[in-house]
Amino acid sequence: MTQVRPTAAESIPVIDISPLRDGSKPDAVAQALLAASQNLGFIYISGHGIPEDVITTARARAFDFFRSPKKEKRRYTISDKHRGWLARGGAKMQDGIVADMKESFIWGYQDDDGNTLSDHQLRGPNLWPDFVPAMETGALAFFSHADRVARYLLQGFALGLKLEQDFFLRNSEIPLSRASFVYYPGQTTQSGKPVFGVGPHTDFGLLTVLCQDSVGGLQVENLDGDWIEAPPIPGTLIVNVGDLLERWTDGACRSTPHRVINSSALERMSLVLAFDPNPETMIDAGDIYGADHQVKQPPISCGDYLVWRFAKAFSYRNKN
Q: For the domain bounded by 4-318, which CATH number is listed?
Protein backbone atom coordinates (compact mmCIF):
# COMPACT_ATOMS: atom_id res chain seq x y z
CA MET A 1 0.00 0.00 0.00
CA THR A 2 1.64 3.17 -1.18
CA GLN A 3 0.76 6.67 -0.12
CA VAL A 4 -2.02 8.43 -2.02
CA ARG A 5 -1.26 11.90 -3.29
CA PRO A 6 -3.87 14.67 -3.43
CA THR A 7 -5.41 14.98 -6.88
CA ALA A 8 -4.58 18.19 -8.73
CA ALA A 9 -7.59 19.70 -10.46
CA GLU A 10 -6.12 19.11 -13.92
CA SER A 11 -4.93 15.54 -13.31
CA ILE A 12 -8.13 13.90 -14.54
CA PRO A 13 -9.80 16.06 -17.19
CA VAL A 14 -13.54 16.78 -17.32
CA ILE A 15 -14.84 16.59 -20.89
CA ASP A 16 -18.32 17.66 -21.93
CA ILE A 17 -19.38 15.21 -24.64
CA SER A 18 -22.67 16.90 -25.53
CA PRO A 19 -21.11 18.47 -28.70
CA LEU A 20 -20.17 14.93 -29.75
CA ARG A 21 -23.61 13.55 -28.98
CA ASP A 22 -25.48 16.31 -30.85
CA GLY A 23 -22.95 16.54 -33.67
CA SER A 24 -22.24 20.27 -33.20
CA LYS A 25 -18.48 19.95 -32.52
CA PRO A 26 -17.54 16.27 -32.66
CA ASP A 27 -13.94 16.84 -33.75
CA ALA A 28 -13.11 19.11 -30.80
CA VAL A 29 -14.45 16.55 -28.33
CA ALA A 30 -12.67 13.75 -30.20
CA GLN A 31 -9.31 15.46 -29.88
CA ALA A 32 -9.89 16.08 -26.17
CA LEU A 33 -10.80 12.43 -25.62
CA LEU A 34 -7.75 11.19 -27.50
CA ALA A 35 -5.41 13.51 -25.59
CA ALA A 36 -6.86 12.32 -22.28
CA SER A 37 -6.58 8.66 -23.28
CA GLN A 38 -2.92 9.11 -24.17
CA ASN A 39 -2.16 10.63 -20.78
CA LEU A 40 -3.83 9.18 -17.70
CA GLY A 41 -6.45 7.11 -19.55
CA PHE A 42 -9.14 8.21 -17.06
CA ILE A 43 -11.68 10.89 -17.93
CA TYR A 44 -14.61 12.56 -16.18
CA ILE A 45 -17.51 12.81 -18.64
CA SER A 46 -20.21 15.46 -18.38
CA GLY A 47 -23.07 16.00 -20.81
CA HIS A 48 -23.48 12.22 -20.99
CA GLY A 49 -27.27 12.23 -21.23
CA ILE A 50 -28.08 9.56 -18.64
CA PRO A 51 -31.11 10.82 -16.69
CA GLU A 52 -30.54 11.11 -12.97
CA ASP A 53 -33.63 9.04 -12.21
CA VAL A 54 -32.17 6.11 -14.18
CA ILE A 55 -29.06 6.21 -11.99
CA THR A 56 -31.00 6.72 -8.75
CA THR A 57 -33.41 3.87 -9.49
CA ALA A 58 -30.68 1.43 -10.54
CA ARG A 59 -28.65 2.20 -7.43
CA ALA A 60 -31.65 1.78 -5.12
CA ARG A 61 -32.52 -1.62 -6.58
CA ALA A 62 -28.88 -2.68 -6.32
CA PHE A 63 -28.86 -1.84 -2.61
CA ASP A 64 -32.09 -3.81 -2.20
CA PHE A 65 -30.31 -6.84 -3.62
CA PHE A 66 -27.02 -6.61 -1.73
CA ARG A 67 -28.71 -5.92 1.60
CA SER A 68 -30.81 -9.07 1.23
CA PRO A 69 -29.96 -12.25 3.16
CA LYS A 70 -27.11 -14.29 1.77
CA LYS A 71 -29.34 -17.34 1.38
CA GLU A 72 -31.50 -15.36 -1.06
CA LYS A 73 -28.54 -14.01 -3.04
CA ARG A 74 -26.98 -17.46 -3.18
CA ARG A 75 -29.89 -18.66 -5.33
CA TYR A 76 -28.48 -16.41 -8.05
CA THR A 77 -24.82 -17.37 -7.68
CA ILE A 78 -22.82 -16.56 -10.76
CA SER A 79 -23.31 -18.93 -13.67
CA ASP A 80 -20.67 -20.36 -15.96
CA LYS A 81 -21.82 -17.70 -18.43
CA HIS A 82 -20.73 -14.95 -15.99
CA ARG A 83 -24.22 -13.86 -15.00
CA GLY A 84 -25.55 -13.32 -11.51
CA TRP A 85 -24.12 -12.76 -8.03
CA LEU A 86 -20.39 -12.92 -7.42
CA ALA A 87 -19.88 -13.18 -3.67
CA ARG A 88 -17.15 -11.47 -1.71
CA GLY A 89 -13.81 -13.17 -2.30
CA GLY A 90 -14.77 -14.36 -5.77
CA ALA A 91 -12.43 -12.02 -7.62
CA LYS A 92 -8.73 -11.33 -7.32
CA MET A 93 -7.43 -8.81 -9.80
CA GLN A 94 -3.74 -9.16 -9.00
CA ASP A 95 -1.60 -12.08 -7.88
CA GLY A 96 -0.10 -11.95 -4.40
CA ILE A 97 -2.89 -10.02 -2.66
CA VAL A 98 -6.03 -11.11 -0.84
CA ALA A 99 -9.25 -11.40 -2.83
CA ASP A 100 -11.33 -8.27 -3.35
CA MET A 101 -13.85 -7.33 -0.66
CA LYS A 102 -16.53 -6.35 -3.16
CA GLU A 103 -19.67 -8.20 -4.18
CA SER A 104 -21.02 -7.90 -7.73
CA PHE A 105 -24.18 -8.60 -9.66
CA ILE A 106 -23.55 -9.04 -13.38
CA TRP A 107 -25.78 -9.09 -16.44
CA GLY A 108 -25.44 -8.60 -20.19
CA TYR A 109 -27.19 -7.62 -23.38
CA GLN A 110 -30.88 -8.53 -23.52
CA ASP A 111 -33.31 -7.57 -26.28
CA ASP A 112 -36.72 -6.00 -25.79
CA ASP A 113 -38.37 -9.41 -25.68
CA GLY A 114 -36.09 -10.62 -22.88
CA ASN A 115 -33.94 -12.77 -25.15
CA THR A 116 -30.23 -13.32 -24.63
CA LEU A 117 -27.63 -15.31 -26.54
CA SER A 118 -25.55 -18.25 -25.34
CA ASP A 119 -23.13 -18.34 -28.27
CA HIS A 120 -20.03 -17.63 -26.20
CA GLN A 121 -18.54 -18.67 -22.86
CA LEU A 122 -19.18 -15.20 -21.42
CA ARG A 123 -22.71 -14.71 -22.66
CA GLY A 124 -25.93 -16.38 -21.54
CA PRO A 125 -29.25 -15.91 -19.73
CA ASN A 126 -29.43 -13.11 -17.20
CA LEU A 127 -30.38 -14.19 -13.67
CA TRP A 128 -32.91 -11.71 -12.29
CA PRO A 129 -33.73 -12.12 -8.56
CA ASP A 130 -37.39 -12.70 -7.80
CA PHE A 131 -37.03 -11.05 -4.38
CA VAL A 132 -36.17 -7.68 -6.05
CA PRO A 133 -38.71 -7.72 -8.90
CA ALA A 134 -37.95 -4.17 -10.08
CA MET A 135 -34.22 -4.84 -10.40
CA GLU A 136 -34.42 -6.08 -13.99
CA THR A 137 -36.08 -2.92 -15.27
CA GLY A 138 -33.67 -0.61 -13.45
CA ALA A 139 -30.61 -2.59 -14.49
CA LEU A 140 -31.59 -2.77 -18.17
CA ALA A 141 -32.35 0.96 -18.26
CA PHE A 142 -28.85 1.70 -16.99
CA PHE A 143 -27.32 -0.76 -19.47
CA SER A 144 -29.13 0.88 -22.39
CA HIS A 145 -28.07 4.41 -21.47
CA ALA A 146 -24.48 3.50 -20.60
CA ASP A 147 -24.17 1.50 -23.83
CA ARG A 148 -25.19 4.60 -25.77
CA VAL A 149 -22.55 6.68 -23.95
CA ALA A 150 -19.85 4.10 -24.68
CA ARG A 151 -20.72 4.10 -28.39
CA TYR A 152 -20.48 7.89 -28.59
CA LEU A 153 -17.11 7.78 -26.85
CA LEU A 154 -15.74 5.11 -29.18
CA GLN A 155 -16.85 7.22 -32.12
CA GLY A 156 -14.90 10.06 -30.55
CA PHE A 157 -11.76 7.97 -30.11
CA ALA A 158 -12.02 6.86 -33.75
CA LEU A 159 -12.34 10.44 -34.99
CA GLY A 160 -9.41 11.49 -32.81
CA LEU A 161 -7.27 8.78 -34.45
CA LYS A 162 -8.39 9.93 -37.95
CA LEU A 163 -10.34 6.72 -38.50
CA GLU A 164 -13.85 6.19 -39.79
CA GLN A 165 -16.26 7.18 -37.04
CA ASP A 166 -17.67 3.66 -36.71
CA PHE A 167 -14.26 1.90 -36.77
CA PHE A 168 -14.51 0.44 -33.24
CA LEU A 169 -18.23 -0.31 -33.62
CA ARG A 170 -18.37 -2.19 -36.92
CA ASN A 171 -19.03 -5.49 -35.14
CA SER A 172 -21.11 -4.51 -32.15
CA GLU A 173 -24.70 -5.34 -33.08
CA ILE A 174 -24.91 -7.80 -30.18
CA PRO A 175 -22.02 -6.75 -27.94
CA LEU A 176 -20.21 -8.93 -25.46
CA SER A 177 -20.55 -6.06 -22.98
CA ARG A 178 -21.23 -6.75 -19.33
CA ALA A 179 -22.84 -4.48 -16.79
CA SER A 180 -22.52 -4.83 -13.05
CA PHE A 181 -23.63 -3.42 -9.76
CA VAL A 182 -20.56 -3.44 -7.51
CA TYR A 183 -21.07 -3.23 -3.75
CA TYR A 184 -18.31 -2.31 -1.30
CA PRO A 185 -18.95 -2.64 2.43
CA GLY A 186 -17.60 -0.06 4.83
CA GLN A 187 -13.99 -1.13 4.94
CA THR A 188 -12.23 -2.74 7.87
CA THR A 189 -8.50 -2.99 8.49
CA GLN A 190 -6.12 -5.88 8.87
CA SER A 191 -2.91 -5.34 10.86
CA GLY A 192 -3.61 -1.61 10.74
CA LYS A 193 -3.71 -1.58 6.92
CA PRO A 194 -6.76 -1.00 4.72
CA VAL A 195 -7.98 -3.86 2.57
CA PHE A 196 -8.64 -3.53 -1.12
CA GLY A 197 -12.25 -3.21 -2.22
CA VAL A 198 -10.70 -3.92 -5.61
CA GLY A 199 -6.99 -4.55 -5.88
CA PRO A 200 -4.76 -2.75 -8.40
CA HIS A 201 -5.68 -3.79 -11.92
CA THR A 202 -6.39 -2.65 -15.45
CA ASP A 203 -9.76 -3.30 -17.03
CA PHE A 204 -9.90 -6.17 -19.49
CA GLY A 205 -12.13 -4.88 -22.25
CA LEU A 206 -12.46 -1.97 -24.64
CA LEU A 207 -13.95 0.79 -22.51
CA THR A 208 -15.42 1.11 -19.01
CA VAL A 209 -18.23 3.51 -18.10
CA LEU A 210 -18.54 3.99 -14.33
CA CYS A 211 -21.13 5.84 -12.30
CA GLN A 212 -19.73 6.47 -8.81
CA ASP A 213 -21.75 7.41 -5.78
CA SER A 214 -20.74 10.15 -3.33
CA VAL A 215 -18.61 7.93 -1.07
CA GLY A 216 -15.35 7.90 -3.01
CA GLY A 217 -12.45 5.47 -2.77
CA LEU A 218 -11.39 5.12 -6.41
CA GLN A 219 -7.66 5.65 -6.91
CA VAL A 220 -5.68 5.84 -10.16
CA GLU A 221 -1.96 5.31 -10.80
CA ASN A 222 -0.55 8.33 -12.62
CA LEU A 223 2.32 8.45 -15.10
CA ASP A 224 4.85 8.92 -12.26
CA GLY A 225 3.68 5.74 -10.55
CA ASP A 226 1.92 7.61 -7.75
CA TRP A 227 -1.64 6.80 -6.65
CA ILE A 228 -4.08 9.71 -6.84
CA GLU A 229 -7.71 9.97 -5.80
CA ALA A 230 -10.47 10.09 -8.41
CA PRO A 231 -13.16 11.66 -6.23
CA PRO A 232 -16.82 11.79 -7.26
CA ILE A 233 -17.88 14.87 -9.24
CA PRO A 234 -21.67 15.36 -9.28
CA GLY A 235 -23.24 14.94 -12.68
CA THR A 236 -20.29 13.13 -14.24
CA LEU A 237 -19.30 9.61 -15.14
CA ILE A 238 -15.79 8.18 -15.01
CA VAL A 239 -14.61 6.58 -18.23
CA ASN A 240 -11.38 4.66 -18.66
CA VAL A 241 -9.57 2.90 -21.47
CA GLY A 242 -9.39 -0.90 -21.19
CA ASP A 243 -6.68 -3.32 -22.22
CA LEU A 244 -8.33 -4.23 -25.51
CA LEU A 245 -8.47 -0.61 -26.67
CA GLU A 246 -4.81 -0.17 -25.71
CA ARG A 247 -3.98 -3.32 -27.67
CA TRP A 248 -6.11 -2.34 -30.67
CA THR A 249 -4.46 1.10 -30.87
CA ASP A 250 -0.99 -0.38 -30.25
CA GLY A 251 -0.59 1.72 -27.12
CA ALA A 252 -1.90 5.03 -28.48
CA CYS A 253 -4.65 4.82 -25.85
CA ARG A 254 -3.52 3.91 -22.34
CA SER A 255 -5.12 1.38 -20.00
CA THR A 256 -4.30 2.61 -16.51
CA PRO A 257 -4.00 0.67 -13.23
CA HIS A 258 -6.58 1.63 -10.62
CA ARG A 259 -7.96 0.30 -7.34
CA VAL A 260 -10.65 0.95 -4.73
CA ILE A 261 -10.07 1.42 -1.00
CA ASN A 262 -13.32 2.25 0.75
CA SER A 263 -12.06 3.51 4.07
CA SER A 264 -15.18 5.62 4.70
CA ALA A 265 -17.03 3.00 6.84
CA LEU A 266 -19.99 3.69 4.52
CA GLU A 267 -21.46 1.36 1.93
CA ARG A 268 -20.32 2.20 -1.59
CA MET A 269 -22.10 1.34 -4.84
CA SER A 270 -20.78 1.57 -8.39
CA LEU A 271 -22.80 1.11 -11.57
CA VAL A 272 -20.52 -0.19 -14.31
CA LEU A 273 -20.67 -0.98 -18.00
CA ALA A 274 -17.70 -2.77 -19.56
CA PHE A 275 -18.22 -2.26 -23.28
CA ASP A 276 -16.93 -4.87 -25.71
CA PRO A 277 -17.93 -5.58 -29.32
CA ASN A 278 -19.13 -8.88 -30.73
CA PRO A 279 -16.95 -11.80 -29.56
CA GLU A 280 -15.62 -12.59 -33.05
CA THR A 281 -14.21 -9.07 -33.47
CA MET A 282 -10.49 -9.23 -34.23
CA ILE A 283 -8.37 -6.88 -32.13
CA ASP A 284 -5.59 -6.10 -34.59
CA ALA A 285 -3.55 -2.88 -34.57
CA GLY A 286 -2.60 -3.64 -38.17
CA ASP A 287 -6.13 -2.63 -39.16
CA ILE A 288 -5.32 0.88 -37.94
CA TYR A 289 -1.69 1.29 -38.92
CA GLY A 290 -1.41 -0.95 -41.99
CA ALA A 291 0.14 -4.29 -42.85
CA ASP A 292 3.70 -2.93 -42.75
CA HIS A 293 3.36 -1.80 -39.14
CA GLN A 294 5.09 -4.02 -36.58
CA VAL A 295 2.39 -4.56 -33.98
CA LYS A 296 3.38 -4.98 -30.34
CA GLN A 297 0.92 -7.83 -29.77
CA PRO A 298 -0.54 -10.34 -32.22
CA PRO A 299 -4.18 -10.20 -33.32
CA ILE A 300 -6.71 -11.94 -31.07
CA SER A 301 -10.48 -12.08 -31.02
CA CYS A 302 -12.30 -10.10 -28.36
CA GLY A 303 -13.98 -13.26 -27.08
CA ASP A 304 -10.80 -15.32 -26.78
CA TYR A 305 -8.96 -12.53 -24.99
CA LEU A 306 -11.68 -12.06 -22.40
CA VAL A 307 -11.96 -15.79 -21.69
CA TRP A 308 -8.22 -15.89 -20.98
CA ARG A 309 -8.36 -12.86 -18.67
CA PHE A 310 -11.47 -14.04 -16.82
CA ALA A 311 -9.85 -17.40 -16.08
CA LYS A 312 -7.04 -15.58 -14.28
CA ALA A 313 -9.27 -13.24 -12.28
CA PHE A 314 -12.34 -15.24 -11.20
CA SER A 315 -11.94 -18.30 -9.03
CA TYR A 316 -15.29 -19.86 -10.00
CA ARG A 317 -14.06 -20.34 -13.58
CA ASN A 318 -11.34 -22.73 -12.43
CA LYS A 319 -13.53 -25.14 -10.48
CA ASN A 320 -13.82 -28.68 -11.81
A: 2.60.120.330
